[in-house]
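Q: Sequence in, structure out?
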Amino acid sequence: MTSVVSAAYMSSPMKRTAILLCLVLIVGFGLFYKLGAVPLADPDEPRYAESGREMIELGSYMVPYFNYEPRINKPVLYYWSICASYMALGVSEFSARLPSALAALAVMIVAFFFMNRFCGLAAAALSCLIMGSSPLFFVPGRLSMPDMVLGLFMVLSLFSFYLGWQEQNQSSKKRWYLLFYFFQVVAAWIKGPIGILIPLAVAAASLWLTRDLQELKALRLAWSIPLVLVASVPWYAYIYFCVDQSTMAAMSTKETVGRIFGSSGHVFDPLYFYFIVVLPGIFPWTFLLPWALYKRFRMLEPSRLRTFLEVWFVFVFVFFTLCAIKKPQYVVMLSCVFAAWLATVVTDALRVSSGRRDIGLIVSLFVFLAVSIVGASRGFTWLSKNQPDLIVGGMGIGLTLIVPALASVWLAARGHARSALVALSLVTLLSLVPAVSYGTAWVEKQHSIKAFLQENEAVISRATEIYAGVKIFNGLPFYLRRQVVMDTEEELLVQKLQGTARCLVFTSDKRYNHNRELFAPYLTAAKYGKVLLSNFAAKGVAP
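A: Exactly. Output:
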């Protein structure tokens, strides 16, 4: 089978290029459509976006800063990518998110060539469509956060391992394994030791499960791992010896050991956390999972590639499930792994069925259609009662769910399974248009400080001191372009408001209501769940 795929790989470069360009346009649309229209979402995005801006302003390219204070809890490489984007395009939400979007597009292109080599053009194209239409892929790819860039280099590392594992020529095998380690170093420069641990563990587990322990000798772990660690250390050493030893030691412990094993005062996130992240994250392909698993274990022959992808998926999922701190973006690479796995199952299953109608696939697509109709109906009812401003956008999303789902059922029933899956991939890609177009204003008001700042710009420009009563308003330094004293106690806030300096305090309506007696005399504005207090502006209406 490998020789047939290799022959096909070499025989149609024009067709392969044309398909890849179409995929880049389709997936690129999902990643770049109004990328800069949505304001930075608190609390995570502004940390990275503002750090890159301050590094340029302060000329500090080895030490990231946030709110004009050193931020050394993560290595510097991702911050450099944001700095480069700012230098090329200027400071904006678009340029802050550009590195993640480009990294996501690169993941798709890398996956295309990898899958084309081992499974053929059809599987390569399908894997890219599955990946590009999964929220677990395109949502992190539209955020100013390091996880997609980290995911790119871990994907590159493990794809290089598999290519080396399958390579018979010893010289080529060494080159692939060298890339396997090189990409680990780059990943470690983005987010620390996790960039080394996961690729090594997945590679070792794959060799152990396939009983190919002899390949461990070719990996030369005894000298490769120390070299990888040494190559990953320079930034940490620079911070430790040239900046702040105690802070570097404390942050390293908190960021690595604390996130895995927990820290004092932190409650472990629930073990089911990633189930409610991954299953919606691979929507709408979640509905094909029962059918795909049945095909995988009951009908298809064993495949080393599928085993490798399954080990990769299970290890990452279990590892982060057992970690103390859990965030959705940590498992972004699983979108690529799942897409590749599902593409191999689908293409092999359709090859076995020889063009016959697949009842299981038709039923899976019909269930998705039924759920889409019910969900759209209930969503419209909820919006009409609770968010009437979003009704038009909600109707658009409902139509982009139902119409492609209906088309996919019709095509599958006619025996055009591949076309049905292409139609299914359009569900989430098309729904981006109404979601972003009509949801931007809502996000700006509910999950960003930007709209609130714009409406109170006249008052803010007169302040000499600015404080934030809650730490979730990390967008303040980015949009104000000045330092803000963050997460301060009530007593200090009241003391500053009672002083002679022109002082502003941003807080949440929840915290304001909890301390109403203290804050009420200084109320200036309240909207979108945010409250502005001052000692020099006119009094506003209480929330």
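The CA atoms of residues 246 and 417 lie 60 Å apart.
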